[in-house]
Amino acid sequence: MRARKAEVSEQITKEAKKIISEGEGETQEVIDMCDFATGLSRQLYGLTMPSERPDHRLQEIWQPLGVVGCVTAFNFPVAVFGWNFCLAAVCGNSIIWKPSPHAEGCADLVKEIWDSVAEEHADIVLINKGGNDAAIELAEDQGIALFSATGSCDMGKALAPKVAKRLGRSLLELGGNNAAIVCKSADLDLTIKGITFSAAGTTGQRCTTLRRLFVHQDIYNEVVEKLKISFSNLKIGDPMDRNSQVGPLISEKSFENMKKRIDSCKSKNLDVFGGDRLDMEGVYVSPALVEVKEHIEEMNDETFAPILYVMPFTDLKEAINLQNSVRQGLSSSIFTNDVRESEIFLSAEGSDCGIANINIGTSGAEIGGAFGGEKDTGGGRESGSDSWKVYMRRTTATINYGSELPLAQGVEFDED
After folding, report:
1. pLDDT tier at 414 (50, 70, 90 boundaries)?
2. Cα Rg for the chain, rounded, in angstroms?
3. CA distances (Å), origin 182, targets 331, 344, 345
4. Spatial separation of the C-alpha atoms in residues 163 and 172, rounded to whole Å
5. Is the CA virtual torsion 172, 124, 6, 278 positive or negative?
6. What is the DSSP letter of 240?
7. CA nearest 154: which of 183, 179, 132?
């Protein structure tokens, strides 16, 4: 992957249509996961625990699951596979990968790279191409010990019952409807940069994309005006051009969904800035900013496009409640220089998301931490921390090294 980073990155940009810098970042993420997993292979620790019984000890043993089925989405066609495969492989598993139909070339290239170094272990990675039927096949297959799927909440709701019906294990990384809160004490230069990338980066096609923004009433007008300027200055164009900051949407259907949502907002006489189809070859759009006075219905669901809803607030707990009011629970952030506000945001009464950031946007995560979210986001965790445990089965062993057979909890069973 290191030697062929440029080739993989260009393939990502070609199929996923993200800017080349993001394609390179995604390839680097897989390289980093390979390093991470290689080190982790020496740290698959189980606990040794004291026993209440004399001359006994307890031991926790971790064993491979078997075969992992992995369904990935178009927007991160290589990185999500890397998260799953690197951990699954060092835990002793093989993987069947069903890539997005939009990015099957990325899967072919990664498989070619693996085969070139894997020798007799080439079959640890198999590819199963196709659409919904191929995903259903993996979900229903009794031979799939862990079904890992990344995609929309609707996809997860359709596939999870099929896995549950056979009492299988599933790891779901589903949609996000992510929010950020901007407090009065925030560093606005840093804030505007963080919001702009989170809302417009990858053309709004990340599960961690910023969808909702709550801004303190006292600085609301200033923040909105700065955001309009920032959005207007974005360089939208060919994702292979290193001057471009925003590429096209993945498909015409994506634009239709975006237009439908914007038209709905306009029908309610809401102020909409941007959101236009650009006169360019491809599905290019300008990121949209929609001003709202209350949390409207359109904000409850994720539109996989660059639409940012902005709403004023006066009380921090009110803003946190609004952030938590949706069914998705992936990523969240707060911009503040007040330690009390940041600690409230991280408390049990704060953000209910799997990711909670301070003074950075909702988008972009490092491999060292577990990635995933709560509620309709699926509850799964991938990448770093102790996520490796999902790819293994746990055995608790009790070892008796004495000559007696005492029972736990003081139970007596005297054969005499």
Report:
1. confident
2. 24
3. 15, 14, 12
4. 11
5. negative
6. T
7. 132
User: What's this model's pTM, rounded to 2 decimal places?
Assistant: 0.95
Q: Is the pLDDT of residue 416 over 80?
A: no
Residue 406 CA to residue 155 CA, distance in Å, equals: 51
Q: What angle do CA 315, 317, 323 make, to 5 degrees?
A: 110
Exactly one of 153, 183, 207, 353 is catalytic; name it: 207
**What pLDDT band is residue 365 in, cutting at 50, 70 and 90?**
confident
Question: What CA–CA distance (Å, rounded) separates 169 from 14?
Answer: 34
Bridge partners, 50 (sequence order): 57
- Residue in this structure with the two tokens 């900013």, named with its chain if needed: 289
- Rounded CA gap, 376 and 264, in Å? 24
Catalytic (active site) residue 207: yes
β pairing state of 125-127 and 94-98: parallel
15, 26, 173, 302: which is the annotated catalytic residue? Answer: 173
Q: What are phi and psi of 388, to 5 degrees?
A: -60, -25
